[in-house]
Amino acid sequence: MLHQNNKLKDLVTHEQHRSLAVILRLLEKSLRETEEWLSGREVNGILYRKRLALSEQNRLAARQAVTAALTAIADLAEQLELEQEEENMVASLGASMIVQWVNLCEEYAGKLRRFGPVHPDLAPLLDPRIDQLAAMTARIGDIVRGKDYGDIRPTASADNAHDV
After folding, report:
1. Whose CA, among 21, 61, 122, 140, lies 20 to 30 Å from 78?
2. Burial class (CB in 10 A: 0-12, 13-18, 19+), 125
3. pLDDT at 98 over 70
C-alpha cells in the first residue's frame, strides 16, 4: 500500500526519473506540434504543401484532448519535480543542413545513373545547380552553428566526386 507521505519522485530511481523526463518531454513536443496544426497551421512550400484536413468538430475535440494531456504532463512533472530543459536548435538545424548537403551530393548527374541512363547533356545543366544548392546548404549550416566562412565553393575533389 502506498503511504501518503511518499512523494512520487522518491519512489523512482535516478535512471527511472531520467527516462520519465525524456519520454514526457517527447510527448509534450508532439502535443505542442499537434496543437499548432489544430490551430490552423499550414505550410505552403515551393514543392510541397502541408495542412490538417479535419472537421471543426474533430479539431475542437482534439484540442480539448491535447489540453487535458498537457495538464496531465504538467501535474506529473510537478510531482516528479522535473525541470524544464532548454533545447538550443543550433545543433539540430546544423545537422539537418549536413544531411541535406549529403542528399544533394547524391543527385549529381553521374549519380543519377542508379535510376537509368543519364542524358549526356544533363551534367552541365544540372551539376552546377546542385553545386550551388549544396554550397548554400553548407553555408546555412555554418551560419546557424555560428561560423561564417564567406562564399563556400566546392573544391576540385568535390567536382570529381559527381560521378562516383
Report:
1. 61
2. exposed
3. yes
DSSP SS3 for 116: coil
Which residues neighbour 102 within 8 Å (Cβ) at sequence distance 6 or greater?
none
Residues with Cβ within 8 Å of 107's Cβ and at least 6 positions away in sequence, in order, are 126, 130
Cα end-to-end distance, the chain, whole Å:
67
Report d(CA 83, CA 71) in Å as an integer.
16
Contact (CB, 8 A) for 110 and 162: yes
Confidence (pTM): 0.74
Look at residues 125, 128, 147, 129 and name the one whose alpha carbon lies nearest to residue 138: 147
